[in-house]
Queue: 2 jobs
Job 1
Amino acid sequence: MGYFYTIFARFLASLGQGVGGQVSFSMAGIFLLSLPVCFSFSAYTMAILHKKFAVVLWVSIIIALFLTMMLGALFSYTYTKVSKDSFTVLCLGSILAFDAFVRSFDSFTGGVLGISGILRPESIRTLPALVQFSFFVLIVILVAQYLVLKSPMGRKIRAFKEHPVALQAFGVSQKSVISFVIIGGSLLSGISGLLEVFRIQFLDPSFGGIPNLIVLVSISILALKPKVKAVVLASMLVVFLPELISFLDFPSALLGHLRVLLYSVLLIVLIHTISGKSQFQKREI
Amino acid sequence: MDFVLQILANSIVLGTQILFLAISLYLIKAVSKIEHVSLGAIGVAIAYTFYLGQTLHIGIWFSIVLSLLAATLLGLASYFLLEKFCKNNQILLALLVSLSFGIGIESIIAILFNSGAKNIIDGVLPIMSFAGITITLPGLYTLILGVLLAIITYIIVKKTPAGRILRSISENQSLVATLGVNQKRVRKMVYIIASIIAGMVGILLGMNTSLTPTLGFTYIMIAFIALFVGGPSDIRGTIVASYVIILIPEFLINFAPASMQFTGSYRMFFVFVIACIVLSIKPRGIFSKTVRHA
């Protein structure tokens, strides 16, 4: 039962991040590759505030999420200032820069050794309670996503991907759409980071990073259709499929590498399959 | 003074390693507009092939042939994976495929050779001292080959018909096709050449330090940043930026007040900050030109 709870908690954390990925990658066409940074940033901020500065846990969670939104605002500002290519470079670079930052500021972050013994809040101390709480949080997120998709903002986000200049011509501020998508995506990624760190109760520089980006992108590419069920099914596939490997008789040292290999192959196949007929295809006018 | 010169020499060697990868990235971007970030992993895979040859004691020349074979295969694999996106102008999707390809290669290396560090040269590294500067022999080779590569690439790209074809493919594919240039063959060749250059730097890196499966990723990211900081449309920008984004962090790390306690692990952080500053001032890079679209 413990295994089931662990995998289900991982699925819920990935789903939260997947929603942010779906909205930014698939709907708005913004390649927000910095989401793993927000994932790690919120977890580290919460852990540092609580463990190093003795801030009350729930308060540190709220501050961490607020600061993650600020980080998202910074990325949003960058998106409006630099070219799309440069933004992609900066997003990928930010993953390594954050990794370097975490390793260097070891007095706060614990460096390569990380921060251990991160306690869950009293009300979700056990794993089943955490899963129930995560489930509740994800229901709220999915309902919010459904409402946004049906609202004028959802239409603006899709229109931004189709033709940003036309959107501007209709009097809609591009910046408001960009800010909404990037800050919202960052916040969702931050929430997922917190749920994940409460599951594993340990942080080190490998938390988040490139493997997390691969999972996130796989979910986002699978969930191309702007529908809630698409992102749920995509997250299920991406999280549960590699679990099949753990039932095979591989040495435990290889399992992690095999899982990453499977993700990368899955992503290559997915992009090749979907690119020809997807919304990523440029439509000639 | 000797200390300053030593830091300068070390930074130039590191900058040259970045330059190798940045030139590979530049060449591929020139013919396909694609940012081929898996070149770092490809370079490391080729270095591991060389290491395999060395451990099997098949001799250095057979190891080099084996490495060239691996470079050709990986270059062709990259071409077949990315060509579709190049034709459809789906550049960001190509970036994701390239990223996944690189991570897949890293995983395969880790599965085959495990994650532990491997040394191509066992024992003490051969060194050379000159005017108070000590440099390892692989470092010196890196420097010489890097300078040669930069000069040759600059001449080919800027002064020869082959260079003009290279640049024109990324500008206007249809026009180049009407001139009878076989674009597919050019791209295939460039992918193979870029893989060989990445392999060269991988082997030199493995000789100078130790090989690990993920070694290439940090290097390719710095090269990627150098390409954009310099301006991806101009080879001069790539060459200058490769050194600038290494020299500034190295000097900050070594000459900052002791109270700041900057260590080598800050390097990537400083590179990122420099990239943010440069790209916010000049979004298309230092050597970019303002292009008027019809």
Job 2
Amino acid sequence: MRSLVGIGLLSAGVLMSAPVAAQDIEALRQELQQMRKQFDTMKDGYEKAINRLGERIQQIESKPQPAAAAPAPTPPPAASMAQAAPAGPPPLAVSPMDLARPRPPFALYGNRGPGQLLFDMGIAGDFVANFTQRNVDKANAGSFAGQENRFFPREIELSLFGQVDPYARAEVRIEAGEEDSGEIALHLAEANLTLLTLPFNTQLKMGQMRNRFGLLNSFHEHDRPFIETPNVLGWFLGDEGLVERGAELTWVAPLPFFLEALVGVFNGDNEDAFGRGKLTHPLVTGRLRTFFELEEWGAIQLGASVANGETPERHRNTLLGFDAKYKYSPEGWTHPLLTLLGEVIYQDRRINVLGEDTDGDGVPDTPDETRRRKRWGWYAGGEVRPFRTGWQKGLGAGFRYDWTQYPVMRGREWAAGPFISFAPSEFLRFRLGYKHTQRTADRASFSENESSARKVDEILFQATFILGAHPVHPF
Amino acid sequence: MRSLLRALPVIALAVVQLAPGLGPGAAAAADKLRVVATTTDLKALTEAVGGDLVEVNSLARGNQNPHDLEVRPSLMVKVRRADLLVINGLDLDQWAEVVVQGANNPKVLPGTPGRVDASQGLPVLEVPTTKVDRSMGDVHPMGNPHYTPDPGMAPQITANILAGLARLMPGSRPVFEKNRADFLGRLEQAMSRWQAALAPFKGARIVQYHADFVYLFARFDLVKAGAIEDRPGIPATPGHLARLIQEMKQAQVKLVVVEPWNDVKLAERVAQEAGAKVRVLAPSVGALKEARTYLDTVDYNVRTIADGLR
């Protein structure tokens, strides 16, 4: 009986489960069909992605391959050439496989190639030597005062420069050079920022910089066309030149010829000319620069500069500068055959003059007073590089004449000298020159260590090299 | 002082007449896009795409070596007015950055829409694969920048220029596209002629003065067999020339090509010693009087090479 009941229950169960199983099968079929569809969709997707990749490979392979070893294919027909112009953002051709592929971290750095350094850097080395008379050496009165009859690094300069962002450029120059004590000193030569996207075609440069006063002041010594600084610049602007902290605003006029106007406001840290060092009594500078193409290969640049500030004695000093530079390059020459340049500096300055003891009793007989010093000086020079091609094109010969009054003390000096130069490449240059200087000054001037140097003869030598990048200097 | 004051209105009027954007011709010029290209080749290709809608100036002249261009303020005047600057992009015209810095024109600063790097997308040759330094001469770390003499590069260069022009004048894109298609049509016709002219000389070995024609040689299956320069930008030494002449004799080199600004006499001496001919090619539009347009320039170079190899 028990077995009969069991069979009955089993039969009932089977009979009842038959429609349920049928339903499951139907559901499974539907699920399977759905999966097939999904699979087909995925397959289509992968096929499309593979096709796209294939097309890309074909496209790349069909581009002109100008490798010497491979036969150069002809360019595609004009219609397909025209299609090559991008009409908008390129279609995204990244397949899921591309996305899933493991990639190394910092791929940008891993694959970095040339030209991807974010700023430029370069080193300029400038070595000079001076041979002169014994009395000049003792009196420390040569062109490199205190470094007579020495060969030394005058300026080893590390330059870092480049875009900060789309709106600004920055430049940092660190210099090392031998001091007159014989020690090497390291200092910040320049560090400045230029805002490039200001309105009305203006640019603002701020920080520490060589001022754009006159022609040569903004050039570092290794970039100048002469071995040593022209006398007038040394006397009126100091041995280091005008290197100031502040800001310069430039504007290029909307004219058919070049006209640049500049105005600057600085602390006034130059000990020789200004030196008050306070923005409350600032050094204010201005410059106008223009340029004309005189004939097909000749060009002239003219400039006028002004600097007005206070001296450490709190007296006003005004400097006016006028400069000109001419270059002539015949057709087909990559360098100028003839370069001529010159500057004039005029000074109007007040100085303290102490009372003089005229009768020798140790008590000044005239009162202390303030006097005006209107002084000026100039230089003119040039260089000829007569060979157009070959190694000889690096050969040059030049000459410079200097005449200047002294800014504060009585007297004046003139100097003249030729030089020759040889540049095997644009990154290496040697110069050898002779300079004769004659001074008309008080007996006490240019006298040290019981020696006097009113007539100076010097042989000068310069070796300059550039490693890495170097910013091009305009004209 | 009074006479100066009286003269002021006259001076002001003269300035207005002369100043771009203020004078009577300004209205016509205002409709045009002002483009500055660093070289004459890029100027010619920009004119081909831009047509009447652009006014194009070149910074380098055709007969100037674009490697050593002196940065003159007159170049800054051109860039100051520009809406678009087309550069070589492979450091041939690095001086252009100094021009831009002095021009006070924010429209053409790096990274702005007013910049076109013509080298984008080009297959660049002679990209250094090892460490480079200046003992190798004036090497270009990004590869040989003299791609414009190769007419096969013109489609991509003009595509880059078109993209730049259309960025600034989107409404004129169809005109630029038509101009470009017309130009490429003419180029394609000329290309078959050039290929036919140089087909008999496939594999011919040519010595160059500087690597100005590497792309052009590769395009037409010619082989560069050496350079008169010791290394790029470095004048040849007697030892280098002696070796080169020896190699030229061994390889039976028939032709030496030289740029008009390089030492043609030296090239002639080398060729004479090695029993080869010398031909002066035009590295850019305007380099020689025969090279008036881009197509003329390629045409002249192809004819001259074929003549030299005959």
